[in-house]
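Inverse folding, one chain.
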């Protein structure tokens, strides 16, 4: 299983040494005068996800933050000032975030809204996600890009089922810094007792999901209390405002982390210059010219001769960089291959243990046709078995063989052929996946790999095995059985398997011979 704690493992909750639940007594009440001088990494861009239930005030909170802390255009301020007024005669700040016509008409967020803004200290990207349960898939998509999440709740109602669902999804996609914005404190008479009860519930939730850092902030978005300025109505709260805390959080790490991973997106050829490059984006770690890399599936290796980019050649490629790698030996790899270093390879997996959120309105069907999409690969699923669901009331896992929209599940996946896959804890980019419908291509579920196994799951009696002998006699007769054509052999076999899976046939591809050198 993945090394980091998570709520989908039904174990006794223990206090993690890595979790920092911040009380309002331990955080400075004002930010440093010059963050870029004190801690350079704090001046970088921060990606913030906002999530919560419908009508808890997410769009209003971010709109108020933009109004108080940024240089909005004068015409934006005038338009808002002339528009409808809400409690206390304040402008309707939510209009700064609700971009779709349907959102303005219904007063809810439907799609993800992205908004960039700058303060005196740093740049922020706000990812405003929908709160309605119907649009959970949009929230999950937004969470995958975030550095920190603002979980917003109504002080009158406290933590609800949807709050727990959002917290579980944050844990699922690896967001480990969370702010609980307890909004509408004015509607509970600025009550410290109400806030402290919610804060205690949030701490319990934070321990369970293993968040690294969590803080609860009492606020009133409409009036701006504790959004960008300290509240005079809650003198008992000594902690930071929302803006102050955001300005003190570290940005997404820029140092390459984890083992080197390079999922190949395409192969580039230039016969005039005798160039054959493997194009893609480094998803983890780094690599230098002269180092040896290995194709996980074929186990063949070569040295890096050149790292080419649109800006010229590099001596080193690091996490997040899009490059074309030229090797000193033309090992036969294609889209879907994953290059690594010999001492830290991904698992050539045939079966997976996973955690996933079910995104489709159509419930899980054990007879359904599913495909597994990873960074650059698409693999037929020979069997998908739901083992348990997360109970969002108790946060315990409950054995189940069924799964429906917005459920968070533990599932076993048997693959129709080997695929290069990591656990999410080791390498998030190559340890996460989407399940897609084999017929329509629609997204079914999104999840992470908690364990990848090289041994294949026991084949079902109804599983059709696509053997190499079949392919060699027919579709691949022109290729023969040679190491240099193995990548094309696998590609054609995979296409046949995808077609058969789309037709509802469980299929496995016979393993390739070992051409490792």
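Residues assigned per position:
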């Amino acid at each position: 299983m993945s090394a980091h704690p998570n709520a989908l493992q039904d174990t006794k909750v223990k206090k993690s040494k890595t979790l920092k639940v911040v009380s309002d007594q331990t955080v400075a009440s004002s930010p440093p005068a010059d963050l870029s001088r004190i801690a350079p990494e704090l001046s970088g861009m921060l990606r913030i996800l906002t999530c919560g239930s419908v009508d808890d005030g997410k769009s209003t909170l971010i709109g108020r933050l933009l109004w108080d802390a940024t240089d909005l255009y004068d015409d934006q301020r005038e338009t808002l000032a002339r528009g409808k007024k809400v409690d206390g005669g304040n402008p309707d700040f939510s209009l700064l975030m609700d971009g779709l016509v349907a959102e303005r008409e219904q007063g809810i967020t439907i799609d993800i809204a992205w908004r960039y803004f700058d303060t005196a200290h740093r740049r922020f990207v706000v990812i405003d996600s929908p709160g309605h349960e119907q649009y959970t898939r949009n929230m999950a998509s937004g969470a995958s890009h975030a550095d920190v999440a603002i979980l917003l709740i109504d002080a009158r109602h406290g933590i609800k089922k949807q709050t727990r669902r959002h917290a579980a999804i944050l844990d699922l996609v690896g967001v480990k810094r969370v702010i609980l914005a307890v909004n509408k404190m004015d509607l509970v008479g600025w009550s410290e007792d109400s806030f402290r009860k919610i804060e205690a519930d949030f701490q319990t939730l934070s321990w369970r999901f293993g968040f690294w850092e969590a803080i609860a902030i009492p606020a009133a978005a409409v009036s701006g209390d504790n959004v960008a300025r300290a509240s005079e109505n809650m003198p008992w709260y000594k902690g930071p405002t929302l803006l102050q805390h955001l300005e003190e959080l570290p940005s997404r790490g820029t140092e390459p982390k984890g083992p080197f991973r390079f999922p190949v997106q395409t192969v580039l050829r230039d016969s005039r210059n005798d160039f054959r490059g493997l194009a893609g984006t480094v998803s983890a770690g780094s690599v230098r010219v002269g180092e040896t890399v290995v194709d996980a599936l074929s186990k063949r290796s070569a040295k890096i001769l050149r790292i080419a980019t649109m800006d010229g050649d590099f001596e080193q490629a690091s996490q997040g960089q899009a490059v074309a790698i030229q090797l000193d030996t033309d090992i036969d790899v294609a889209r879907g291959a994953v290059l690594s270093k010999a001492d830290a390879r991904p698992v050539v997996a045939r079966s997976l243990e996973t955690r996933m959120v079910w995104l489709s309105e159509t419930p899980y069907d054990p007879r359904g046709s599913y495909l597994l999409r990873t960074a650059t690969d698409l693999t037929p699923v020979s069997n998908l078995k739901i083992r348990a669901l997360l109970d969002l009331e108790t946060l315990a896992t409950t054995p189940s063989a069924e799964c429906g929209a917005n459920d968070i599940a533990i599932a076993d996946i048997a693959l129709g052929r080997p695929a290069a896959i990591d656990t999410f804890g080791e390498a998030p980019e190559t340890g996460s996946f989407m399940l897609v419908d084999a017929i329509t291509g629609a997204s079914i579920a999104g999840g992470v790999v908690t364990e990848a196994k090289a041994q294949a799951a026991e084949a079902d009696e109804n599983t059709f095995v696509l053997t190499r002998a079949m392919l060699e006699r027919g579709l691949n007769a022109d290729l023969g059985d040679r190491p240099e054509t193995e990548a094309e052999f696998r590609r054609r076999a995979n296409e046949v398997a995808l077609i058969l899976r789309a037709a509802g046939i469980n299929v496995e591809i016979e393993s390739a011979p070992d051409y490792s050198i």
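The chain has ten helices and 27 strands. The first helix runs from residue 35 to 38.
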